[in-house]
Description:
Layout: H1 3-20, H2 29-33, H3 37-46, H4 58-71, H5 75-92
Amino acid sequence: MKLTDLEKNRGLKINNRLKQGGTPGRFGGEAAATPDRKAQRKLDQEKGLVPFAVKIPAELATRLRERAQSGGLDLNALVAAMLEQGLAAASTGATPE
């Protein structure tokens, strides 16, 4: 066999393996498990959550993400807890942690 024939056969084998590989989870059944935006918005509204967008420095956002990840918390829960602490401290005149 020629070298080009060998390469062609190798390419055909690779294509066949890709076709038989199956569908990744993000495109298969797992994709249906996550609610779409409209359903997620409705779930959030039932919990009493509202979107609240703010612009903060990238360094602060990174620190918040790291802190949430190290504490095993959701970023939303961490920010809500920190805002509660800050607002409580501000109303009593104490300095936040």
